[in-house]
Sequence to fold (352 residues):
Amino acid sequence: MMSEYLEQSFLNNTLKSWIIVAAAIALSFVIIRIFVFIFVRKIERLSKVTVATWDDFLVQILKRAVVPILYVSATYFSLSMLTLPIKAVKVLHIGFLFTVTFFVLRIISTVFKRFVFSYIKGRDGQEGREKQAGGLIVILNAVIWVLGIIFLIDNLGYNVTTLIAGLGIGGIAIALAAQTILGDLFSYFVIFFDRPFEIGDFIIIDDKMGVVEYIGIKTTRLRTLNGEQLVCSNTDLTNARLHNYKRMQKRRVVFTLGVTYQTSYIKLSQIPEIVKDIITKRSNVQFDRGHFSKYGAFSLDFEFVYYILDADYNTFMDEQQAIYLAIFAAFEQNEIEFAYPTQTLFLDRQVG
Fold:
């Protein structure tokens, strides 16, 4: 009685076949759950006690992509044991290919993103460059998904040769029509890999200056000292002579002092030592040289050179102000007069 009941046909398959397929799906799901519970959970527990991040990344890949692929594959291959209409088989096959392709491309995209960020952190340890890498990730993700879709279409039985040829011809036409955009795109890659500047750097291009706020695929945006946003094309930046003050290790300062011609020889010879003593007492300043440099039109000129051992502009101004005030006080104490533009007129009186 039971055997006759199991042999009854339902949608071109016996009830026994449906039960076997359902059992196969259920058993596969149980095995997958056991795999997740034992293997994935074990890796997840280990990842929480290790310093490395690759195991966390592996758990993420397993949960978000590998496990769904296992569920979909178990369902597909179990249903394949049934005798289904041709259209149903085709729909099932297409759905399986779409789903698997999606998750595989998701794995490739995630791995690529992880590789880019690891490259950035491993090279200079600056997580801020992740914003700069956003454009690169978008472009190469688009390439990955386009190639994945072409692969999917090819596996569905369509001829992709014509499609690829069309894309090639279309790509040439687009490249000719958008040379400026492509030039900025390639300049973006130059900026990303060659790193002439990064987000947060203070740069000067010609007569424009500001802090880099954003580096995009086509443009780079600066925040100027006046507060407005300056938008520059990437090509202009890579072609220009650019000053990057963020990477300045120390700032060289050259300044001159002029004293009057009435200054005595003794005081004149003391000036280099007075200024040197003032500069060397500053902890953030390195003295280089100081000399009596020339006889000026109305002054005896001295030239001094020192280095501010900090790239920060405010530090430079603070140190320079302290040095100038100390020099003024020292000259006042030693009765040394600063020179200023004057003219002396000599009259020759002839007695007739």
